[in-house]
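Hi R.,

As promised on Friday, here is the backbone we talked about, encoded as structure tokens. Could you run it through your design pipeline when you get a chance and send me back a sequence?
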């Protein structure tokens, strides 16, 4: 497809810029876990620019959001925390809107934030190459979960999580910037819904993809496989309102967010061969949804530690043994090891390294 080729070409051009930045090996490859989550290496962040559906949903959302705000505001302040070496969800659409004279530096101001020194070096070279310097208020080397700007932001753009809403610090970053939005400010994506389901892994991850897809870049879920799923419901919805009203529980020095409780439908029969999965669906703005399997961040994540109506031959230390009559309480860990913590409902919550 032409659009796929365009994104690959953009990636190749961006990598040329990265080489111009002349990063040391450690600046390219250092990856670690801090108090808020996984900090990805600069190198591992580069491929986001090739994620066709993720990027196009963000571009459409940002384009429409900026146009909407321009009707009302004399100036639009945008911040993009944890933006990586290319700020891929913003800079391409910013360049297009500038070239089409839809925006101007007097109207739109940009702040870019990343914790990786190598990303900062790359950003400075890239912004200069794209001739977008006049839009930039600052390029800040800082932890996005702690950064405090010197003004209220009208838009913050954040996408720092992996499938199953895991590993990275997206929730902590959004909590930080939700309190820095202007009164009418917008977070983008506007909504992330994380849902739980029980699936047959062989059919979910293997068999349904054996048939050729008419459009390989836009995978379509097999209806028979969908019908075999047991949808358990929503466990967390993240938007501006929910960020400001999170139910946070202190467990010693750690914190978790209380999420939703789900139960297995009474109509379900044998669930012993099914696996719990968590999947995110993302709405950037104005109804532009990124659905399951359209991006790495929306692939369903299997939770093999939860066993329903069976006992594994080799139980895991963090395993959760349930029956289909049990309800499942979900919590979200606000630690370096981010992700959901499923527990049996009505039992005391314990939280350890896992």
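Update: got your reply. Pasting your designed sequence below so it's all in one thread:
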């Amino acid at each position: 497809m032409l659009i796929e080729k365009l994104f690959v070409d953009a990636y190749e051009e961006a990598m040329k810029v990265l080489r111009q930045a002349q990063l040391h090996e450690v600046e390219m490859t250092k990856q670690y876990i801090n108090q808020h989550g996984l900090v990805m290496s600069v190198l591992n962040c580069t491929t986001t620019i090739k994620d066709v559906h993720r990027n196009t949903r963000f571009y459409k959302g940002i384009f429409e959001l900026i146009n909407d705000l321009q009707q009302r505001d004399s100036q639009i302040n945008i911040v993009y925390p944890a933006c990586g070496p290319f700020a891929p969800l913003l800079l391409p659409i910013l360049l297009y809107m500038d070239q089409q004279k839809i925006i101007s530096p007097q109207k739109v101001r940009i702040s870019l934030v990343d914790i990786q020194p190598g990303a900062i070096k790359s950003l400075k070279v890239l912004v200069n190459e794209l001739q977008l310097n006049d839009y930039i208020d600052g390029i800040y080397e800082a932890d996005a979960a702690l950064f405090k700007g010197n003004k209220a932001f009208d838009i913050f753009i954040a996408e720092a999580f992996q499938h199953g809403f895991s590993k990275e610090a997206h929730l902590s970053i959004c909590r930080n910037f939700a309190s820095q939005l202007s009164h009418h400010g917008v977070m983008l994506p506007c909504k992330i819904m994380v849902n739980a389901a029980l699936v047959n892994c062989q059919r979910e991850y293997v068999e349904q993809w054996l048939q050729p897809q008419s459009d390989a870049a836009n995978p379509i879920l097999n209806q028979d496989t969908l019908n075999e799923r047991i949808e358990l419901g929503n466990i967390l919805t993240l938007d501006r309102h929910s960020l400001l009203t999170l139910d946070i529980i202190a467990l010693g020095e750690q914190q978790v967010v209380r999420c939703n409780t789900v139960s297995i439908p009474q109509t379900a029969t044998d669930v012993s061969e099914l696996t719990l999965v968590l999947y995110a669906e993302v709405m950037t703005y104005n109804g532009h949804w990124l659905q399951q399997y359209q991006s790495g961040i929306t692939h369903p994540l299997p939770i093999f530690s939860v066993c329903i109506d069976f006992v594994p031959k080799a139980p895991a230390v963090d395993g959760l043994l349930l029956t289909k009559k049990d309800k499942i309480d979900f919590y979200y860990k606000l630690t370096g090891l981010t992700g959901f913590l499923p527990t049996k409902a009505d039992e005391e919550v314990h939280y350890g390294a896992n």
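One thing I noticed while checking it: The chain has a mean pLDDT of 93.

Thanks again,
M.
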